[in-house]
Fold this protein.
Amino acid sequence: MAAQGQQQQDGLVGGPSLEAQQEAFMQGVFESCPAKTAMAGVGGFGLGALFGLFMSSMETQAGNDEFLKMTTKEQFRYTLKDMGRRMYSSARNFGTMGAIFAGTECVIETFRGKHDIYNGVVGGCITGAMLAANGGPQAMAMGCGGFAVFSYAMEKYMHESELNGTGFFSTPQTRPRQTHDTLFSPFAPPEFPAAEK
């Protein structure tokens, strides 16, 4: 009994602490594809709202005769209503675009088992094609090409910054392949190294 109790105590001392388990669990949640998709959608929504606010503030109503005939109070209400409509429209578009891109890129990265620029390029192509789906095949092809080129430029810049100024044709980084449990279930239990005896 004493030996068994000592072994249990050693296991608790040598194993990961509760804080380490919680930290690894939260890290796994935030690195999962559903979490990345949700965070990108929320971030894109906020960025789009700011962009819509900026664009609406740049527009003038000097040539709008109906607006000029309104009272000051009516002009104020009209301006706020138009600003809110533009902010929501821009936020919805940015949020949708961010969620689609982050989700597709994460899924592609998981199945390829590599972290390089090509995940973003393919994710950008799929995003552009999906956003232009209502315009027909030609519009989807144009959207795919445009988003792929933009994603390549952005991913290349980001990866070169991460690699601290390596050459243009640098070797892509490779990291261990994620499991499908991590991809589709963000609450998969983390793996810990075995405790030394």
In short: Residues 7-12, 167-193 have pLDDT under 50 and may be disordered.
